[in-house]
């Protein structure tokens, strides 16, 4: 039986709590947030034994075996380092960090400490893609093109729970991470590092800072591989229509999975897919099952470094045009928890 500490109780905190409530081999030990009455209410609703606002104290509790980090994106790397220092296994929500250096530092720290480090990359978990991936690995289909889109209206900082947040999303280091990692993972036949090793060129566009939000609001990244594959990620926080989908074109078929309608469409037509919500449950459950069985989690920290390196290249191009700086939701010092 593993005692779990959850940091953060927004949408992903809710989904992780739902996934583990009643799951074999796990006890919901503690939850940590910023507002104690809200944290206590969450603990009562989902069955956590303890609620608090001191993250350092919670992760160093000798009773805690593992920690799930579902706080603001900008705090993930610094929080993960604190958990690793405490010697606890950790599952970090996407992204693991918001610079390559911070992401790599977390991975190295976990490996040096012998601590399990899992990362939440839900597109790798989808059951609808297992058969397609098996065919790609067997050489029965070859990936030609992967296009991921994320469009949402986010001029006002309200998240998926409908509550105004005290932190800002970053379109490159959050939503584009999902899309590019998925493309590299498929291009590498289930190995993002293998996909990244075949990159021939990366082209990108991000506009300057929006005066209302203080952050870039649009992105387009195109990756070309030496195998003449293309991986394209596009998104905008200005869009009035909400779009979140991926299109995979292979030598044999096309597959478009709409995350919002839970529908997958191929040349044969459309059929239902598991919801984004249900798919997310698999992530925390895989983490616990890996911990209990002594195996690696499905998505390790090291396996996500290839996409973080590509994001760093895109960020460096933006920095060269607009000037490197801390912006809302992305402080340059990613490993200083006190500064976040």
TrEMBL record:
Source organism of the structure: Acidocella aquatica
Short name of any one Pfam family annotated for the protein: OxRdtase_C
Source domain of life: Bacteria
This protein's name: Gfo/Idh/MocA family oxidoreductase
Domain Gfo/Idh/MocA-like oxidoreductase N-terminal intervals: 3-121
Domain 4-carboxy-2-hydroxymuconate-6-semialdehyde dehydrogenase-like C-terminal: 130-225
Gene3D superfamilies, sorted: Dihydrodipicolinate Reductase, domain 2, NAD(P)-binding Rossmann-like Domain
Family annotation (InterPro entries): Gfo/Idh/MocA-like_OxRdtase_N, Gfo/Idh/MocA_Oxidoreductases, LigC_C, NAD(P)-bd_dom_sf
Signal peptide: none
